Amino acid sequence: MKKILVLIISVIPFLSEAQGTLDWNQPTRGVAIALDNQNNSYVTDYDYNPAGDISLTKRDPQGNLLWSTSFNQTDNTKWERASWVETDNAGNAVVVGTLMSGYSNPVVAASIIMKFDVSGNLLWRQIFDGPFDGSSTNKCIIDASNNIYVLGTGVGPNGLRTRVKKFDATGAVLWDYFDNYGVGAPINFKFTPDNHIVIAGRGVTGNINGYSKIDLNGNHIWNVSPITSFTVGDIAGDAFGNSYIVHGTPTSGGGTIVRKIKPNGNEIWQRNFTLTAFRIEVGSDNFPVVAGFPIAGAGAAFAKINSNGNLIWLNPDADGPNILLLHAMLKLDQFNNAYLAAGQLGALAICKVNSNGSNAWTTVVSGSGAVGLEIGTDYNVYAVGGSTVRLLQSLPCIVPGNLTSSNITPTSVKLNWASVPGAVQYQVWTRKTTATTWRKRTVPSTKTSATFTLLDCGSDYVWKVRTVCNASPLTTSAWSGLESYTTAACFTGGEVDKTTDADYNSSMAVIFPNPANDYTQISFESTGLFHVVLMDMSGRIIKESTYMIDEDQTQQIDISSLQSGIYLLQITSAKQSQQYRLVKQ
Known about the structure:
By secondary structure, the protein is mostly beta strands. Among the domains are: 397-506, Sandwich (Immunoglobulin-like); 507-585, Immunoglobulin-like (Sandwich).
């Protein structure tokens, strides 16, 4: 019987959320999927028949077929088995696979790599290292310079070994790395945030795992092997050069062991946790998340661990009543939510767990199990198995981070924060620590700062910011924590130098949107009395208003009746006057 989700200090029931909803399901089967920067999906598959080929299919984000291509190899004694697909920075697709010999009892013949452009044209293709050397491929990854790294097996000085082979963007071979340290047959590899590669392997016979780390020049850094494990394992790295290894105990039912390894290969700690995990990823918070089965039975279980090896949360029943099998891939998104590609008998499934360990959603689609998934820049989930699907989910409205204050003068300050994906506006409030009334500002999503003027010199202030993800109905994030700043000391003696004082030379307002359709907004940069005149380019006054700006420093202007063209907004205060160009679409 499956258990409910148990956190360290609380119990949270299974939640069914209206996210992860199926958008489209196209009948393109595949063994791997990749996305380009525009969220076009590339799926690779193969035809298990004499002279069978590897295929590559491209669909747009709406699921429409753009093209399908293959290299036509005509040797009836051989066929091609696809392994992986990856895209580079230009949107080209790299496919790796294995050339197989024979049909009823096939044997591994050689390795294949092909590169296709965005239109499906073959740029280059290689069979390596020979027409029948017994090598194979598992996976490929591509770095920022479009160099390609291929994991598989190859014949080195000591015979057939796990191998990483590096190609440049043109297909030229740069180096070969052969495992001579007992890692075993290749299982997985990935880049680490410190710009290295970690490799996980498994013995061909026996319950033995092995792990290693190399640099991008193919130099061996360390290995950890052999490790007796009832289950296959995995490895991932953090931004500090540490690596996290997951594997099982020597016998079934003993739980999961996670190890933390220093950059030099020395072990820092190892811990045992009550689930059967065999996949691991490290989030942007540098904490590892593991995924696998509950300690007993099928399903989807997750755990998150901190850098000291302490359990942050454990979710032994992330899939609720679905009882997932066929676990294939673990991914983390930019918010450190976790996704598991899995399946049931006759169904494709994706299970999502929130970053705090609570259940998000599990979506099951008819067809064979999911073997790969990607999270698009649109925050939707693309997966492949017996078909190719897109699951829709809303981008969360998150609190801005990286809050700083700068350009502090006796009477002004610039408040800064990091851009939030999906933001349409930001709301920024500030006040003196001794005051109860906030000065408020709304700024467009294209800006990540707000300048407040007419402040009191030598005074302590606090400020906060939140994200507006939808203007109507208003949808916002929570407020950030309060940040503080102190204005510079007051001037002593003499008059204010108006050539340098921010009250005289800073921009009086921000006009947005601009260009605009029916409405635009004026976000005043200070408080006080303002006279606003809207004119055409000949100087004819169309409308004018006077505003006393105190707390709400944003005013909306109706321009729906205007003809398309360029207009002028004249804003005048007691101290200055400025003109702004406004484009009506």
